[in-house]
UniProtKB/TrEMBL annotation:
HAMAP family: DAP_epimerase (MF_00197). The keyword Oxidoreductase does not apply. One of its GO terms (molecular function) is diaminopimelate epimerase activity. It comes from Aneurinibacillus thermoaerophilus. This is Diaminopimelate epimerase. Pathway: Amino-acid biosynthesis; L-lysine biosynthesis via DAP pathway; DL-2,6-diaminopimelate from LL-2,6-diaminopimelate: step 1/1.
Length: 278
C-alpha cells in the first residue's frame, strides 16, 4: 500500500489515497502504522477519499485508533495533497470532514502548495454540544480539578472538543502529566484535546497541546483556533492572534462578520513509501 508522509508544523500524518470509502479496519491500520517504533510513525492516519459534496473527503484516525471529527493541520495537508497530486488542481477548493465542509485557499509556489488558509467554521460554545458535562450556553474559565490541583478551562468545539487552560508559562508546563489526566476527565464525555496557553500580548500567545488519542503533539490547528476563541471570549486576546506552537506558528482570526474561524499555516510533504507489513 503506497502512502505519503506529511505534516503541518510537525503534527504528522500518514496519507493514504487509494480507498473509495473508509476501510473497516481503519482503526487497526492507524494503531499499527502510526507506531513510532514498529510502524511508520505519525500522530494520525488520514484517508483522502472521493466526495460527492466537496472536492475531496478527509477522514482522520488518531494514533490510538479513535476517529476524530476534525483536524486543522490535516485539512491543510489534504488540500496540499489534492492540489499537488492532481486530485483537485485549483487554488480554492473544499474538503469534506465529519465536522462539515471546509473552504480552503491555497498559495502555490513553483507548482506546489506552500501555504493554506482554511475556513474552520463557527466555534461551538454550548456545553452539551462541545461536549462538556456542564449545561451552560458558554463554559468560560470553569474550574476543573485533577490530583488536588484546580485549573480553569474554557470549552470550545471546532468540530472536535477542546479545553483551553491559560497558564503563566506554557513553555515549561508539564503537558504530559496534566494533559493525560485532563483528557479523560469526567467533565469530557468524549474526552478532549487540552491546550495550555500563555498570553504574550493581545495578538500573540504560546500554546502547548495534549491531543486526545495521540498525546503531546508539535501543533494542533483546531487547538489554535479554540485558543483564540477562548482568548477573545475571556478578553485575554484580540480576535486575531498569532499562535506559537512547538512546531511553528499559525495565524488565527475569529471573524466578526460571519463568526467563522480562519486559520493560515503551512503544509509539507516529506516522503512517500510502501507499507508492506500485514
Ligand atoms: N491535530 C489536530 C487534531 C487531531 C484530532 C484530535 N486529536 C482529536 O481527537 O480531536 C488539529 O490539527 O486540529
Amino acid at each position: 500500500m503506497n502512502f505519503t508522509k506529511m505534516n503541518g508544523l510537525g503534527n504528522d500524518f500518514i496519507i493514504v489515497a487509494h480507498f473509495e470509502t473508509l476501510p473497516e479496519n481503519a482503526s487497526d491500520m492507524a494503531r499499527v502504522m502510526c507506531d513510532r517504533h514498529f510502524g511508520i510513525g505519525a500522530d494520525g492516519l488520514v484517508f483522502v477519499l472521493p466526495s460527492d459534496k466537496a472536492d475531496v473527503c478527509m477522514r482522520i484516525i488518531n494514533a490510538d485508533g479513535s476517529e476524530a471529527e476534525q483536524c486543522g493541520n490535516a485539512v491543510r495537508c489534504v488540500a496540499k495533497y489534492a492540489y499537488d497530486h492532481g486530485i483537485a488542481r485549483k487554488e480554492a477548493l473544499t474538503v469534506e470532514t465529519l465536522a462539515g465542509i471546509q473552504r480552503v485557499w491555497l498559495t502555490v509556489e513553483n507548482e506546489k502548495v506552500s501555504l493554506v488558509k482554511v475556513d474552520m467554521g463557527a466555534p461551538i460554545l454550548y456545553g452539551p454540544s462541545i461536549p462538556v458535562a456542564i449545561d451552560r450556553e458558554q463554559v468560560i474559565d470553569h474550574p476543573i480539578e485533577a490530583e488536588g490541583k484546580t485549573f480553569s478551562f474554557t470549552g470550545v468545539s471546532m468540530g472536535n472538543p477542546h479545553a483551553v487552560i491559560f497558564v503563566d508559562n506554557a513553555l515549561d508546563f508539564d503537558v504530559e502529566k496534566w494533559g493525560s489526566l485532563l483528557e479523560k476527565h469526567s467533565l469530557f464525555p468524549n474526552k478532549a484535546n487540552i491546550e495550555f496557553v500563555s498570553v504574550t500580548s493581545p495578538q500573540e500567545v504560546e500554546m502547548r497541546v495534549w491531543e486526545r488519542g495521540c498525546g503531546q503533539t508539535f501543533a494542533c490547528g483546531t487547538g489554535a483556533c479554540a485558543t483564540v476563541v477562548a482568548g477573545a471570549l475571556t478578553g485575554r486576546t484580540n480576535r486575531r492572534a498569532l499562535v506559537h506552537l512547538k512546531g511553528g506558528d499559525l495565524e488565527i482570526e475569529w471573524a466578526e462578520t460571519d463568526d467563522h474561524v480562519y486559520m493560515i499555516g503551512p503544509a509539507e510533504e516529506v516522503f512517500t513509501g510502501t507499507w508492506c507489513k500485514r
